[in-house]
Amino acid sequence: ICQSSRKLVTNCEFVKICVCFSCFFTNILVLCTIIDMLSEKFGFSSDDSGFFGTMNIAGGFIGSLCFGFFLKQFKLYKLANVSVGVLCVASTIGFYFALLTETKWVVTVAYSLCGFAAFSTLNVSFSYSSEITFPINEATSTGLLLLGSQLLGFACTNLCTELMNMMDRLDGTTSCFAVLITVNVVGTLSAITMKPIREDNESS
């Protein structure tokens, strides 16, 4: 396991997918943690918060199916990762402005799109990782991806929570979303630099 882990952390392409997965999955970890706080600050009930969460998961399920089908048909891993990144950035920005409207259905749609984008990274990143790290055990590569995402997610969750507690409603929310958007942009830039493995496989 130690030898396999060493090979993975010295593999440039694996590091890139680890950055992507950690950044995009942080959206899930942070937003799912602070959704109750956001709901309360913008005048929604705990029942509304639960409904938002349900729709977020439903959106994630649909997103995973769509990207899973796309990868199975075309195997364009780089394009899939870049697409997830762009969707994560766009949906996070959209969710921020949706909250400002304080309209339940607008927030529901926006938060569902966040789930559609962010949950899709599970399927996309794990598939890409297994392709570039073969024949290393998939459990090892997946474990490292999850470790990176948990560390970044924990740090961002604490930072966003502190920002929202320290500032007023608008400034705290804006600062929190600025952190998330920045993290997602970093993940998207990492995806853009990825190796298009399908082209390499076809040419070999």
From TrEMBL:
Subcellular location(s): the record lists: Membrane
Identify one Gene Ontology CC term for this UniProt entry: membrane
Membrane association type? Multi-pass membrane protein
Q: Which InterPro entries did the record assign? A: FLVCR1-2_SLC49-like (IPR049680), MFS_trans_sf (IPR036259)
User: Which residue ranges run through the membrane?
Assistant: 14-38, 50-70, 76-98, 105-124, 176-194
Q: Which UniProt keywords apply?
A: Membrane, Transmembrane, Transmembrane helix
What top-level branch of life does the organism fall under? Eukaryota
PANTHER family cross-referenced by the UniProt entry:
MAJOR FACILITATOR SUPERFAMILY PROTEIN-RELATED (PTHR10924), SOLUTE CARRIER FAMILY 49 MEMBER A3 (PTHR10924:SF6)
State the name under which the record lists this protein: Uncharacterized protein
